[in-house]
Specification:
Elements (H helix, E strand, L loop, with lengths): L1 E5 L36 H10 L23 E3 L7 H4 L11 H20 L3 H8 L6 H33 L14 E5 L3 H15 L21 H16 L9 H16 L12 H5 L4 H4 L3 E5 L6 H6 L11 E3 L1 H4 L19 H6 E2 L4 E2 L2 E2 L21 E2 L19 E5 H16 L12 H12 L11 H15 L6 H7 L3 H4 L4 E8 L5 E9 L14 H6 L11
Antiparallel strand pairs: 1-3, 2-5, 4-10, 6-9, 7-8, 11-12
Helix pairs in contact: 1-3, 3-5, 4-5, 5-6, 5-7, 6-7, 7-8, 7-14, 8-14, 14-15, 14-16, 15-16
Length: 560
């Protein structure tokens, strides 16, 4: 199928600024009539364009309603009733209403920026020679040459990254590999999902040798945050895992699972990458402040300046400056396992430590006060804008931030981390070979990879003993739900497993908190919200304006 569109590039000699342009397909108008051949050829401009393709990368902290995407899943519930999240929760997303449609143009903007840089930098060595004395300043010149090589490889990985994000939403999309000039109108084939997957893999495989291995362990640590071999391999591993999953692998072709296992193993076993689970910081502290940036668990983080958005939106309403925001559900909380004997009075005692690291529970102390959600308590659930679920979000949020005085904190969005890679590996190895198969050239069994993640949380967690593929699959699904909670994995996992029609059509549960005359809290499970997911929602709709503008060449996804 062909997609006809117009695309616009805005290139400034001094800066490159990106803007979203409504719902128009690839409408990335920024403006001048410059082309790669006509832009001033100097060193600073070269680096400006080299960094430009990073600008559209998104941070999951503000992806929907300026907050996390979790409220569109069974992980969380928005405190405020009227939000864009309802488009997902009520199944009303359509060709005219899609709160995430801005990502479509943003990601194609990133692809266009990468294409432009690859065109512009073909003669980059000559640019650098004109702007450096290659004799007296040979050290810096050689550094420039290295950076040029890395940046050109990174532009290819940027294209892989953006296409990976696009296909998880839309399925097949057009592949654009060249810079399209102002007023250009072209017919571009809409590639199938599998074709785009193959393209992503080829972009990574054909350019991985030119990438920096791991910025953290190099002498160029100041470049950490740019694509590296590790992040490229992690992108490939996730893409191939998704491609092997039931939504895209309807015949359960085991070779796809084998490819996904091999790709994850590359991240684990490649010499010099040196990724590890962060034990020193621990699960809670790993996500706070600048900790992800120095951690060997982090493969790729999207960085932003210090702010207080995530805290201001999600602190409890009766913590000064908080708005309650997204609150965890009982659907999530009830899945945290016990690591000791259940306490009949305190249901949150002796649980997987990741519960206390992720969720603020009643009668726990946080931000220098004790949460009391019972009638008459500070956080009485009958009060306006208190939690409907009986829980508040803790993961990511800096403790005791003074929002009233405008306090800020570092909040770095971890796009790829080693724990996810281990879980990707465990899932793919189980499906391809079984839980305990020892495969030549592979560093771990599926069970060993899963155990690493669980042991980091607590060595007291129940041991996963099943040797049955389907039961081990359920254990992996459980572990992803807990380990990756609120990290923008849950929705896409439910889609690729084809579990969304079951899970996202179930009621959202919370707890109602009360306190008896002896001061003992009691908890009663209650339905506090509903979800509606339609079969068509496994893929997003293309914007109706694009269908119209394409004069029939862009075919809408099924069901819209």
């Amino acid at each position: 199928m062909n997609t006809k569109f117009k695309t616009f590039i805005l290139i400034s000699v001094l800066t490159l600024t990106f803007c979203g342009c409504g719902k128009d397909f690839l409408n990335t108008k920024i403006d001048t009539n410059r082309t790669p051949a006509s832009v001033l050829t100097d060193r600073s401009t070269l680096w400006t364009f080299a960094n430009a393709f990073y600008a559209p990368m998104t941070t999951g902290f503000t992806i929907l309603d300026n907050n996390l995407f979790a409220a569109a899943t069974d992980e969380g519930q928005q405190t405020v009733s009227s939000t864009n999240t309802n488009c997902f929760n009520q199944g009303t997303i359509n060709a005219n209403i899609n709160p995430l449609s801005y990502l479509y143009s943003s990601y194609y903007t990133g692809i266009q920026a990468a294409n432009f840089f690859l065109d512009y930098s073909k003669n980059g060595r000559q640019f650098l020679a004109l702007n450096r004395d290659t004799i007296s300043d040979v050290v810096n010149y050689n550094n420039d040459i290295n950076n040029l090589k890395w940046y050109r490889a990174e532009a290819h990985i940027a294209r892989a990254y953006y296409y990976a994000e696009l296909i998880k939403m839309y399925g097949g999309v057009p592949i654009i590999e060249k810079t399209l000039q102002q007023t250009t109108t072209v017919d571009v084939p809409k590639s199938t999902y599998d074709q785009v997957v193959a393209y992503i893999v080829s972009e990574i495989d054909n350019n991985k040798a030119a990438l920096q291995l791991n910025w953290k362990t190099s002498s160029y640590t100041g470049n950490d945050g740019r694509f590296s071999l590790g992040s490229a391999l992690a992108i490939k591993a996730r893409v191939l895992l998704y491609a092997a999953s039931p939504l895209h692998n309807t015949t359960n072709d085991l070779t796809k699972w084998q490819a996904a296992a091999s790709a994850a193993n590359d991240v684990i076993a490649t010499t010099g990458l040196n990724y590890n689970l962060d034990v020193s910081n621990g699960y809670r502290n790993y996500f706070l402040g600048s900790n992800p940036l120095g951690s060997n668990e982090t493969i790729l983080a999207v960085r932003r300046a210090a702010n207080n958005t995530i805290e201001a939106l999600n602190y409890p309403i009766y913590t000064a400056g908080g708005k309650s925001g997204i609150t965890p559900t009982e659907n999530l909380v009830s899945d945290y396992e016990y690591v000791g004997t259940p306490d009949p009075i305190d249901p949150y005692k002796n649980r997987d430590p990741r519960l206390a690291a992720t969720v603020v529970t009643n009668n726990s102390t946080w931000n220098s006060r004790t949460i009391d959600e019972s009638a008459g308590g500070t956080d009485d659930m009958a009060k306006t804008n208190t939690s409907k679920t009986g829980y508040y979000l803790k993961k990511f949020l800096t403790d005791n931030l003074n929002l009233v005085q405008g306090g800020t904190a570092q909040n770095q969005w971890v796009a790829y981390r080693y724990a996810e890679v281990l879980l990707n590996y465990a899932e793919a190895m189980n499906e391809a070979y079984g839980p305990d198969a020892v495969v030549a050239g592979y560093s771990l069994t599926a069970r060993q990879a899963l155990k690493k993640v669980r042991d980091r949380a607590s060595t007291s967690l129940p041991v996963v003993t099943t040797a049955v593929v389907s039961d081990f699959r359920a254990a992996v699904k459980h572990e992803r739900k807990i380990e990756l909670a609120f990290e923008d994995h849950r929705f896409w996992d439910l889609l690729r497993w084809k579990d969304a029609e079951t899970v996202l059509n179930q009621p959202i549960r919370g707890v109602k908190v009360s306190k008896n005359s002896n001061g003992i809290f009691t908890y009663q499970t209650a339905t506090i919200g509903t979800r509606k997911f339609l079969s068509r929602n496994y893929f997003f709709p293309f914007a109706q304006s694009e269908i119209v503008n394409s004069n029939g060449t862009l075919i809408q996804n099924i069901g819209y």
